[in-house]
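Records of this kind hold a single protein each, on a pair of labelled lines. With that in mind, the following record should read easily:
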Amino acid sequence: MYAIALACVARSALAVSEPSSHVLAYQDDRLSVRLTEVPLEEVMADLEQASGAEVHGTVRPSRDVSAEFYDVPLVEALYRLLGGQNFVLVYGKGEHLRAVELLGGPQALIRTSAAPGPAPAVATSGVPRDPGGAVAALDGHPPVSVSGRLAQALGTEAATFRQLFDVASHNEDAAVRAEAMRAFIRALDAEPEFRELVLRTLNTMDDFTLTEMLSGLAGNRAEEIAAQIAAHAHGSELRSKARAILLRLGGSRAANTADARPTT
């Protein structure tokens, strides 16, 4: 009943502006539009204003759009409007839309939605496990290809970042754990634009919060995972964050060991 009522309100709101060929209404993570040959950049600017969220990135390709729909979930609405362009939705506290990240390349269901859904899990220290949205970003990425022993352990040749992380954290076979983390890092390094998005979310947290988040997610294997990232990640910024976590988890010996990574 609530959804029906909301749709009626949206239709009424659009009807009030009947002479206009450009109307957009956003409420409760749902979108209603009536557009006739409107530049897509202008539509995204209107969404930014209506939702209070920031829109990052560039519309690719630039074009005019015509569409009319009412009370459609934002993810589906953006699929209709953006067509083949990847995007990520980032939510903050209170499940409030914080940003829309426009990415390049063909659409591959890259969408980050911390809402709707259950609230982020909380570590034992009381620090949210995903205060910056990094986990949500990774969870929204489509599966990546895996092979060999790792694929056998997973029972699939395509795994999500969450599946790779879970294997790296909880599998009893150390070799499988190591391969899962290397696959995780390779997949992240293979998409620089997506990696930068993840790094931006990590940069919103200090070292203490990052350490608490990793400990909450990986338990007693947090140090092992941080060491893997410090040893194998190509980006110096990500390695630096991993070494900072190692210092908190295992002292200077662990961080010095990570610094002795082989060059590749």
Observations:
- The beta strands are 22-27, 30-39, 54-56, 64-73, 85-91, 97-106, 144-145, 158-159.
